[in-house]
Amino acid sequence: MYWMLTKSKHQLRLQNMLLVVASYVFYGWWDWRFLGLIAFSTFVDFFAGRAIEKAVSKSRAKLFLAISLATNLGLLAYFKYANFFVESWIEAWAGMGVEMHASSLNIILPVGISFYTFQTLSYSIDIYRGKLKPTRDPIAFAAFVSFFPQLVAGPIERASKLLPQIERSRRFDKDLAISGLRLMLWGMFKKVVVADTCARLADTIFDAPELYSGPTLMLGVFYFAFQIYGDFSGYSDIAIGTGRLFGIRLSANFKFPYFSRDIAEFWRRWHISLSTWFRDYLYIPLGGSRGSQWQVIRNVAVIFIVSGFWHGANWTFVIWGAIHALLFVPLILLKRNRKNASDVVAEGKLLPSIKDVFAMGSTFALVCLAWVFFRADTVSEAINYIVGFSEFPTPEKPITLVVYTAFVWIGVLVLVDWIQRDGNIPRWWLTRKFQPLRWFTYGICVWLCLKNLHSEASFIYFQF
Amino acid sequence: MNSFLSRVFLFICSLIISWGLLWTSALNFQSIETYFIAERSEHGAVKMKTAELMERSKSDTLDFLFLGSSTCYRGVDPHYLDPLKGFSVCSSSQILGNSAYILDVALEYTSTHYLVIDVYPKLWSDAGVVNKEAARDWVVNSSTPKSGPIIDMVMATGEPYCMAVAGYFWLAERLGVDYPPYAHIAKDHYKGLGYLASDVEPIESVICNDIDVEMSHETCEILRGIISKSSVHGAQTILLNPPQLCEESFPTPDCFSDVLYIDGNDWPGAKTPSYYYDDHHLVDKGAASYSVWLSKELKKMTLVSVATID
After folding, report:
1. Residue A10 catalytic?
2. Is residue B83 reached through a cis peptide bond, with omega within 30 degrees of 0 on the bond before it?
3. Given the residues A271, A311, A324, A454, the one annotated as active site
4. Model pTM?
5. At B234, phi and psi to the nearest 5?
6. Residue A119's closest CA among A79, A80, A76?
7. Kind of pairing between the strands at B236-241 and B260-263
8. How confident is the prediction for chain A on average, in pLDDT?
């Protein structure tokens, strides 16, 4: 339907209108009441963007930027953080012996609010900074804000990248569409086969950690690490692949993060669209890596804690962010935070060196330690979980839940990622000679996805 | 665009070929079937109870045919109905939507005077009208032909994978491929007539939370359909709420009115933790005691059919 419109005289407008309608139907399917929220955010930012450009003075431009920021952050604060602040306030008073009662706000968190809010914020800020011209096409802007493949869990696109693609006439590109379908299948495999298999095991262990000894608890975090990676990067791949079917190229969100050799590299490879957002709109305005070492450390701490808080209104996320900040600080002090900035592990080689294996293993272990806080419901649960690592297995608490199927799927994921990590390796499997084998593999992947598909298994990042 | 669509068509063809190769391998190697298609299981003993059902003479009319979920096949031992005859085709997660089809399967091999439906309230809130797991259980493990009502039940789930599995097991049946159950369940013992005894250690206590459930209008309609179908086959329906340590509160559904009803929670042992291995599944000892009581209730009720829910 979308590509049939290319024959029309008003192709671009009709395609964009179709995108907006599809995106609103997609979002409304979850809860139609929150469609007004996206529409409101779109309306405010569209006019704020134009007003910033037309502003006769810097202070007036600042005023319109403030309106945009206040609207977007206000919505985010109300829907995402109001419950948290009210509860924290009551708990703080209760700690001092003062009983307070407040009827719970019970505010429903609109799916994807953190993602589309950041997307629209970047639009207003870039216009204010003079890096972007505001669009005059409200339909194109609405399509930019609500583009359904990445609406609910990213990648968080910048207006400077996505908007020009939406405003430009699009022609069907067979190779782009095929690569999109391939990416969607791989994303489905990561989500449905790897992440959901790991999720069942991780949930079993995290739901009753007192029943398990240290090795099983460590296994639980290991499963969760691959659950969240398969889940989130799988969603991103599906989103990017779907975008390609519409002739739109979305940004990469993950670049093999578990092959990182230090935390700094991990953050250049994990949730890239969010970390670069914080870099450009928070870290650099705070001073970035300029200034004294103390200021740099402060800036790093701020972005990691804010990043943790972005993930959810819970102290567990804040501590998760703080742990990453703490892991980052030694790299700054030793001036090694840019050490692995330009290359990929074992570039041009088949296998990593012992040193690389150690570096990747230790980074992965530290990331896993922080995942405990990300996964736990409360800080005390996370601490108890980590304390449980030291418990030796006993006949009452043996090492359990070593599920070989999960290891096989994790192995497939790691192997494919390892082969893909180095862009210099010839993609022999994509040649015509290997097409029958490749398609057979795709067929088995589709079967496995159908086999593991459970309608109740949602994406983790939908909650953010 | 046309070359893209022809490529998609070729891919679909290759998909069918690769699935064909997978199925062929699975038909020859049980491990491939287990890992890639479905695991044949003794859980719920569907294979054994359906094989036993098929051996029955259809003219030998049952007095009681039981339908329902695990609370039924772990709790009701039809041997205690003696001298009356009973049989249970209860299976794991069998909700009313599934029971409607499983009744059809059972009626192909037997007839009954009374149909006893285990209406475990916690399953009323189960998502979907037909439980996918229960449907898959019958497709994979039932000894009855994978056709008619079983295929209808699979189609009603609307799940593509369930349909594909049904296709595979239909083919396996036609080709005479019948592997034994892959994993033996050590603590379960099939004792015949559809009853599965559990030797799991009983619990000592349980903490109950208030649970409110409500039967949906859709499920109520399904129950009405089952009642009218059984009456067409000359059977009267009895609804049975199984005993639970933690009872659910529920408003009496409209479709319960004018139907015979037994509340298993009236059984004197209903609140004895040592009869259960969790808050609603009975161990063998508990099932024996409950079945004796239920047998008396059923005999009493069917001689003097006056007790209705209200």
Report:
1. no
2. yes
3. A311
4. 0.82
5. 80, 20
6. A76
7. parallel
8. 87
